[in-house]
Amino acid sequence: MGKIIKPSDDGSLITRRQFLGHCLRGAGVLAIGGLTGLLTREGRAENMVWQIDPHRCIGCDLCAKNCVLKPSAVKCVHEFKMCGYCELCFGYLADVRPGDTPGAANERCPTGAIQRAFVEAPYFQYTIDEQKCFGCGLCVKGCRTFGNSSLCLQVRHDRCVNCNECAIARQCPADAFRRVPASQPYLLRTQSS
Length: 193
What we know:
Order of helices and strands: EEHEHEEEHEHE
Radius of gyration: 28 Å
Number of domains: 2
Number of strands: 8
Distance between the termini: 66 Å
Helix content: 25-40%
Strand content: 15-25%
Structural class: alpha+beta
Strand order of the largest sheet: 1-2
């Protein structure tokens, strides 16, 4: 029998062998708990993706400049439910237009990614060619300043590599980037966020 070293919680004495057994079981429980916590945290990270909160985005051009992908995984999205289908859409047209015509020289988008189609007088529909969009946010800024904010920037998850620490999020002056569940990866103005 081992030497008695310490009284137990109920006042009885335990042996060194029993004490070591308790310590080993406790260490095993701690190790399993730590491993479970680590796997749970990693599992949660895998189920989360980066996204831009359109209520906070200021259209600053840093999405286009700081994404690890070229062109950026951030693209302009048009929320048709909010759009006024305006003849003078300032997401599409520059606010200062020499000659006041809707020609290409007066478009706000530097790549011509916004397409305009006549619906009926005086309404036009605006769609985004995502292949041309590189996430500069000029249209978003114009739509927010002069319109109803139906244009917003969103991370497109078919392009995004979901970096552990998003390079754009680190540089965002409006703190508009956040992690959202992968099951609901897009944040639009028409949704509560």
